[in-house]
Amino acid sequence: MSTLIDLVGNTPLVELQKLNTNPNVKIYAKLEGNNPGGSVKDRAALNMIQSAISRGDIKPGMRLIEATSGNTGIALAMIARLFDLEIELIMPKNSTQERVQTMEAFGAKVILLDGIEACRDYAEEKGASGDYFLLNQFANADNYLAHYKSTGPEIWKDTQQKITHFVSSMGTTGTIMGTSMYLKEQNTEVQIVGCQPTEGSSIPGIRRWPEAYLPKIFDASRVDRIIDVSEQNAVETTRALAKTEGIFAGMSSGGACYAALQVARELEEGVIVFVVCDRGDRYLSSDLFGR
């Protein structure tokens, strides 16, 4: 008999059947929406909370606090509930209503502010007061270590050690950092590709951070290439994933898929894995899938 925690990770890889036009390249989507909280962030949330409890950093009765654009908050709200911890989540005002309501359904307190940078500043200020435990996914090694422990090994195993390229959107950068660390230990030739928005594009889950807010866990040497993705590219590819491949996902997943398809067009042969970060039902109140 499994507990909810046992269901975090071990998500499936599915091969793209139609969008990939290079017959000598296989592209696999890692379906992180299959996690119990509906996104890749379940991995980091579990590892951050569980590791902090094991070290004695989080004590009974402590309240957690974190800034989030959505998926991490949902994952933290779910995991915090499993450990009987109260949590306060700080989100941008433009977050979709589905995300806010999901966090509140888990019993989290949600505060909405203007922009993720303001949310991060607020959470850090509260964390410094001593009244809260700040998880700080942007500087917390347990974020990327979750992917070193689970995402990387799963991909290596499920591709029968044949992966040549790993493609991931970059937000907190935990997924790409930890997965890169593991895959490069297995084979230094595996190429790690990150994607970020073009200047002026807004893609939930992917960020082009100002220098002052660049995640402290980010190590540029672990990424071989960065592909800029426009908002239009991300939207169109997200819609194509649903209508062509039957993969219902959010816009950051469309951005990663766009980058994976671009890489595939350049290769003579290869095995590409990209991360489908979450599920599309978190975006139905937005205009992502049209009206």
TrEMBL record:
Pyridoxal 5'-phosphate binds at N71, G171, T172, T173, G174, T175, S252. Pathway: Amino-acid biosynthesis; L-cysteine biosynthesis; L-cysteine from L-serine: step 2/2. CDD domains: CBS_like. It catalyses: O-acetyl-L-serine + hydrogen sulfide = L-cysteine + acetate. It is an enzyme of class 2 (transferase). Its cofactor is pyridoxal 5'-phosphate. Residues 6-278 form the Tryptophan synthase beta chain-like PALP domain. Pfam families: PALP (PF00291). GO terms for biological process: cysteine biosynthetic process from serine. InterPro entries: Cys_synth (IPR005856), Cys_Synth/Cystath_Beta-Synth (IPR050214), CysM (IPR005858), P-phosphate_BS (IPR001216), TrpB-like_PALP (IPR001926), TrpB-like_PALP_sf (IPR036052). GO terms for molecular function: cysteine synthase activity. The modification N6-(pyridoxal phosphate)lysine is found at K41. Keywords: Amino-acid biosynthesis, Cysteine biosynthesis, Pyridoxal phosphate, Transferase. Transmembrane segments: none annotated. Belongs to the cysteine synthase/cystathionine beta-synthase family. This is Cysteine synthase. It comes from Pelobium manganitolerans.
